[in-house]
Design brief:
31 strands; single chain; five-stranded parallel beta sheet; 650 residues; 22 helices
């Protein structure tokens, strides 16, 4: 299945490893559409490098060609401008689903002579245009509209408008001001007094920056914008990578303990969504913003309260990973995104609910309560941001099934291709070029003993993952936390300092080597180990341990299936039930054999039915890539011989 096809369903499976890659995102839609329009109005031929080729940018190309410009695409995009003289009407301009094109073009049509019809897709007809229409009408432009909301289609009877001074409400979209700004040099200039709180203010700065590249004079003050009369001259423009596209990968890094670098974006970027990296930093991620790159490295995340007015396109992305954070996340300042491609507040709440995550729509944002998400089908409502954001949720955890994944072509046609490339890169980068042995199997099959012996034979490190879970149980009991208190135990797991080395276990600096094997911890550990948030935290620590030690041997019940699915060698140890019971009875001489056998049977059922990281059979671990070893009648050395065969020491 090609996930880019409309009407299809894209199965987005869990990444399974930290997101580790350098991701080159496509050109900025915001930058591309501004540059295309201004180049089309300019004298001469302009050259755009790195321009985005997506449904929205294609809509802008068709529109400016309808107005007389010539656009030629290739390794670079060239635009032969009209020198301020757009095609005389009647002209119909269809901008499909591009809100930026609609709001940028309406003031430009006022520069012409004759009748112009501006229309678009049914979805776009529902988006607001009234504030910009009123501003143009105030300046004398003759506009017909068929609804009280002044939505598309709009008919404009142009007579080479001259703008002047106007008050503009910018509380719903900064694009209204950007459209007036770009048309203004050719309409005698403009003085805009902005009313309402400006949303996405950085994008006004982006508009001004692109205009100046083509020779315009623009001044932006807190409540005023001034554009001088003049003409545009052809220019060569390098389009920045799209910061909105990068937010999905930064979020992946933050939520998977990963490490993502996006070249081409840096501290000088004027795109509002660059701020999203700093939002992730406030949640606990490590963020480096250089002159020409942004790098995000994941850590345990905490919930935050944040105003996202200046980077509203990233709201669904933050909501998608907020469920993995410790504590609630409150997003504010974004009530206006109800009028985007979909009602993004209501839809995000609905889709999180489908995944089993609790969230609430507030007057101007969202409140998300962290919880372990479940796999779900995600309808996208023709909204590319929802499709990409909930793909991130699925990649970080349970997977999702995206209905109509082709909607991402609006701004990021290669999104699913880039996700799959990241999946491949992450598995290569996350697993060092050394030996990683994953040993799965039920209790009593000899995993711990065999794993230590294999590590000794190969001369590599061994991580006792069972001791990690026992350490969390020990820490919970020591802090008088009920092991059944899912949230408090999960919070403890994220904060506790664990040191497991040379057979010694320290928990927050305390030597707990003996205590973690005691009866109280043994009774509590199965409850703690079933906590999905504890498992997520310890999986991240286990993967970090592998990277820092250059490989190693790990054993458990989800090692080969979840923690290191691309291990050098995956082993499934098993033994006959009576053998496993006899071994467990021998480990604790006071226990009755029949009681041990009954306990093991119950433990097997619990492990196999666990929601998070269940014990899988060999087929679930990867089929033919898994070597099954029945240890019932084998010595430890014989088992090690089988496992170590064919593995070359690093």
């Amino acid at each position: 299945m090609n996930p880019k096809d409309r009407g299809k369903v894209a199965a987005v499976d869990p990444l399974g490893v930290p997101a580790v890659a350098t991701v080159v995102v496509p050109g900025s839609k915001s930058h591309t559409n501004r540059a295309l329009l201004i180049a089309a109005l300019a004298d001469g031929t302009s050259t755009l490098t790195g321009a985005l080729d997506s449904n929205d940018s294609q809509a802008m190309c068709r529109a400016v060609e309808a107005l007389g410009a010539t656009v030629t695409k290739g390794d670079v995009t060239t635009v032969r401008g009209v020198g301020g003289e757009i095609t005389v009407g009647p002209v119909t301009v269809d901008v499909a689903q591009s809100g930026t094109a609609a709001r940028f073009l309406l003031p430009v049509l006022a520069l012409g002579l004759g009748t112009y019809v501006l229309d678009g897709h049914a979805q776009l007809r529902g988006r607001p245009m009234a504030d910009q229409v009123r501003a143009l009408e105030f300046m004398g432009v003759n506009i017909e509209h068929r609804s009280s909301e002044m939505n598309l289609p709009i008919i404009l009877h142009a007579d080479r408008a001259q703008f002047g001074s106007v008050e503009l409400d910018v509380a719903r979209s900064s694009q209204f001001a950007s459209g007036l700004m770009m048309a203004a040099p050719l309409a005698g200039g403009i003085e805009i007094t902005m009313s309402g709180e400006v949303v996405s203010r950085p994008y006004l700065e982006l508009t001004a920056a692109v205009m100046r590249q083509f020779g315009a004079e623009v001044t932006i003050e807190p409540d005023n914008i001034s554009v001088a009369a003049g003409r545009y001259s052809a220019a060569t423009v390098e389009i920045e990578p799209d910061a909105s596209a990068a937010t999905y990968f930064w979020a992946l890094a933050a939520a998977t303990n990963g490490d993502i670098r996006t070249p081409g974006l840096g501290r000088e970027s004027t795109q509002g969504d660059v701020r999203f990296a700093r939002i992730l930093e406030s949640m606990g991620a490590k963020v480096d913003i250089d002159q020409d790159s942004i790098r995000v490295r994941g850590r345990s995340l905490r919930g935050i309260t944040v105003n996202m007015m200046d980077c509203s396109d990233a709201v669904p992305t933050l909501a998608a990973i907020a469920c993995y954070a410790e504590g609630e996340t409150a997003i504010g300042g974004v009530g206006f995104i109800r009028a985007k491609e979909s009602n993004r507040l209501a839809r995000v709440v609905e889709l999180l609910g489908r995944c089993g995550v609790k969230s609430v729509e507030t007057d101007d944002g969202l409140l998300i309560t962290p919880s372990a998400p479940e796999r779900a089908e995600i309808p996208t409502y023709e909204d590319h941001r929802l499709a990409m954001a909930f793909s991130v949720l699925g990649l970080c955890g349970p997977g999702v099934d995206i209905i109509d994944p082709g909607c991402v072509a609006k701004t990021y046609p290669a999104f699913f291709d880039d996700v799959e490339n990241l999946r491949k890169d992450s598995r290569v980068e996350s697993m060092p070029e050394s030996v990683v042995v994953a040993i799965d199997g039920p209790a009593g099959s000899g995993k711990s003993t065999v794993a230590r012996a294999v590590a000794d034979r190969l001369g590599i490190e061994y991580l006792d993952t069972g001791a990690m879970y026992r350490s969390i149980a020990f820490a919970a009991l020591r802090a008088h936390i009920d092991p059944d208190d899912v949230d408090r135990v999960a919070a403890l797991a994220r904060s506790v300092d664990l040191e497991i080395s040379d057979g010694v276990v320290r928990v927050d600096g305390i030597d707990a080597t003996i205590e973690i094997r005691g009866p109280e911890v043994t009774q509590a550990v199965s409850i703690v180990a079933a906590n999905p948030e504890v498992r997520a935290e310890l999986r991240g620590r286990q993967r970090s341990w592998i990277r820092s030690h250059g490989g190693g041997v790990l054993e458990g019940r989800d090692i080969g299936s979840v923690v290191v699915p691309d291990a050098t060698k995956k082993i499934y140890l098993t033994a006959r039930p009576e053998v496993r019971a006899r071994r467990r009875a021998a480990e604790a001489e006071a226990l009755d054999y029949d009681a041990v056998a009954s306990d093991l049977a119950a433990r097997d059922a619990a492990d196999r039915n666990r929601v998070d990281g269940p014990l899988l059979d060999p087929a679930g671990l990867g089929g033919t890539d898994v070597e099954i070893v029945d240890t019932s009648d084998m010595t430890i050395d014989e088992v090690v011989d089988v496992i170590a065969k064919g593995i070359r020491r690093p």
